[in-house]
Amino acid sequence: MADTNPTARASVKSATSVQAKKSSNVISWLAPLICLIAGYVLWRYVIGSDSNFTNPDKAGGFWPGHIGPKTALAKMYEGGIIVPILIGCFLIVFTFVIERLLTVMKASGTGSNSDFIRRVQFHLADRKVESALAECDKQKGSVGNVMKAGLRKYQEMINTGDLTTEQKVIAIQKEVEEATALELPILEKNLVFLSTIASVATLLGLLGTVMGMIRSFSKLGDSGGGEAARELSVGISEALYNTALGIGTSAFAIITYNVFTTKIDAITYGIDESGFTLTQSFASLYK
Fold first, then answer.
1. How many domains is the chain built from?
2. Is residue 16 included in any domain, yes or no?
3. What whole-number distance in Å separates Cα of residue 2 and Cα of residue 19?
């Protein structure tokens, strides 16, 4: 009996069905940089195009001093240098929403996870492990991947005679845990960008608003009369574009983050249920 547990541990580690999915974080960190650059390009050359102003600054440069915006979109340009950062943040959120959407859709697989688990339970009750494996191939999601890894160990344990039932159940459970450890990080990857921008975007919007208000009241102090009041009202309007962009971006990030975490929680629950199904089935059928 002294050699039994090492054998079980060795078999668990040697027959892991789900291999680690190698992925680089370079693109994950490169995408935000590209989005920020794109935000500046949109602000400087699209929103801040010379044709959008009655008195454009022909000298150009990093931050041209255009005057007289012709459209509401052109007024956003005068919100200041925080505006392109907020546009970049929105593009970052949009980019990772698309990336997470594709990942979660793939991880969800085809059909309902609860229906899939019931079909596997039905096949296991009839001792048809191959049919259960075929169901995993049809599911094509994270729950199916974990279930398939556990079923292969399940099948191996049926033909293993030197372990007790309890040791075999533990081996199946460990296989499921290893497969789960490979699937979950893929589901949760890059959600940190959504949660971070959800908090930071509002603060950036307020920062841009404060900077705009400082410029507005500075102009008010340099002049007087009706012209000063007009300059102040225009400056406040421009400054509030930062607040609107920040709140809008933050709201978009919060909503999508909550949607994805809910979807991931449902997949995680399906994975946990699949592991429980395998261990309980083996314990009851192969005592």
1. 1
2. no
3. 30
Quick check: 250 and 199 in contact, CB under 8 A? yes
Pairs from 278-282 (Cβ < 8 Å, separation ≥ 24): 278/124, 278/147, 278/150, 278/151, 278/154, 278/172, 278/173, 278/176, 279/169, 279/172, 279/173, 279/176, 281/121, 281/124, 281/125, 281/154, 282/154, 282/157, 282/165, 282/168, 282/169, 282/172
**Residue (of 187, 189, 180) closest to 16 by Cα position:** 180
Q: What is the pTM (predicted TM-score) of this model? A: 0.83
Could you tell me the CA-to-CA distances from 33 to 97, 160, 222 in Å, in that order?
A: 16, 54, 39
Q: Please provide the distance, in angstroms rounded to a whole number, between the alpha carbons at the two ends of the chain.
A: 18
Is 97 a domain residue? Answer: yes
Residue 248 · residue 119 · CB < 8 Å: no
pLDDT, tens digit, 9 for 90 and up, residues 68-95: 888 888 888 888 889 999 999 999 999 9
Q: The domain containing residue 257 runs over which residues? A: 24-285
